[in-house]
Amino acid sequence: MMEHSAGMVLYRERKGKREYLLLKSTYRSTFWGFPKGLIEAGESELQTALREVSEETGLFEIEVISGFEEKTHFWKTVKGKKVYKEVIWFLGKVLDKNDGKVSSEHEELVWLPFEEAIVRVTHKQEKELLRKAEGKISQVSQYPLL
């Protein structure tokens, strides 16, 4: 059995500092990660990622950073059956003025600088994803669009 999901690493610039959004799962209260969810029929991967962001955080004004698309994959057990899950990740800059809201799927939503976010993220693959996102943002910031 296989599942396809899409998600997004979200960041914002506030008072000259970059912060990343992390969510604490309701289902596994020790899990901290990024918004993601199953791709629905007729949706593109990016549409899914943006829908999941809005459903899980209440944030809608997202600037998608081009040139960032990463995959993670893992095995999980669902109702006693092994499921292979693949997640396509995008990178988005949050333009909303509010902090977002916690959905019923999560216990907490936080904004953290990279140094704190990298410690808080639970899974090794998502830590690497965050490192790649930080590298991409730093690269984009060095060469602003004219």
Describe the structure.
Strands 1, 2, 3, 4, 5, 6, 7 and 8 form an eight-stranded mixed sheet that branches. With 146 residues, the protein is of the alpha+beta class. Helices cover 27% and strands 41% of the residues. Helix 2 runs antiparallel to helix 3. The radius of gyration is 15 Å and the shape is globular.
Key features of this structure:
about 150 residues, alpha+beta, Nucleoside Triphosphate Pyrophosphohydrolase, 8 strands, globular
Could you outline the blueprint of secondary structure elements for this entry?
Blueprint: E1 2-14, E2 17-25, E3 32-33, E4 36-38, H1 45-57, E5 62-64, E6 70-78, E7 81-94, E8 106-112, H2 114-120, H3 124-142
Parallel strand pairs: 1-7
Antiparallel strand pairs: 1-2, 1-4, 2-3, 2-8, 5-7, 6-7
CATH class: Alpha Beta
At the fourth CATH level, what is the homologous superfamily? Nucleoside Triphosphate Pyrophosphohydrolase
Q: Distance N terminus to C terminus?
A: 47 Å
- The multimeric state of the shown protein is single chain
- Spell the H/E element sequence: EEEEHEEEEHH
Brief overview, please?
The protein is 27% helix and 41% strand. With 146 residues, the chain is of the alpha+beta class. Helix 2 packs antiparallel against helix 3.
